[in-house]
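lol forgot to send this yesterday, sorry. struct tokens for the thing we talked abt
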């Protein structure tokens, strides 16, 4: 029988799974996202336009609008792909990020991996983040990460109100906090990761 510390986390929904689509439509979607991702790497997300993506993909601008609706829809589609890949890594990938390692090791690995993921896609998250007043409204990536943290805390035997502790830890790994530290205060990623590991070490249990 698999122990709670090593079992895959049940019942955590992945961020927006794409609806079933025709093979040619799926191929065109991937082509557009590949072109957009390449432009983001080259220019930064803030400089990406629907017309630039259309030109890079060799299609008409109307095709991009029909597929993603608007620029925000394109940003969310790019993030959705990156987020689903990351979620698969920590829900079912190799340990210590995925199942198979002690819960406290997974907790430490999850924070470090999330920091690296967030910083890698920080400009995309900033483009797609809700307004400040809606910052803590439920949305799939935040909800999945918070549920995963609560699951790891529970399996590690950490005492206290684990739902609230998980929310606090999620805030440390969230876009606003990481953007403030990394972009505005110029705190190196390594120092932010060390801060996360220190938090994990200070948890009881």
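and heres what i got for the seq, position by position
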């Amino acid at each position: 029988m698999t122990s709670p510390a090593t079992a895959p986390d049940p019942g955590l929904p992945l961020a927006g799974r794409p609806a079933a689509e025709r093979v040619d439509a799926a191929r065109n979607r991937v082509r557009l996202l590949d072109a957009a991702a390449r432009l983001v790497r080259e220019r930064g997300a803030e400089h990406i336009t629907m017309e630039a993506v259309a030109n890079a993909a060799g299609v008409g601008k109307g095709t991009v609008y029909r597929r993603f609706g608007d620029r925000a829809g394109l940003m969310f589609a790019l993030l959705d792909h990156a987020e689903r890949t990351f979620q698969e890594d920590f829900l079912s990938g190799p340990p210590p990020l995925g199942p198979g390692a002690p819960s406290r090791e997974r907790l430490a690995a999850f924070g470090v991996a999330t920091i690296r993921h967030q910083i890698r896609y920080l400009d995309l998250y900033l483009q797609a983040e809700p307004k400040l007043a809606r910052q803590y409204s439920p949305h799939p990536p935040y909800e999945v990460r918070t549920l995963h943290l609560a699951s790891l805390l529970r399996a590690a035997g950490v005492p206290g109100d684990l739902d609230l502790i998980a929310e606090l830890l999620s805030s440390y790994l969230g876009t606003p906090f990481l953007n403030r530290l990394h972009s505005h205060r110029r705190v190196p990623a390594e120092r932010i990761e060390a801060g996360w590991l220190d938090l994990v070490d200070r948890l009881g249990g």
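The chain is about 65% helix and 0% strand. anyway ping me if u want another try
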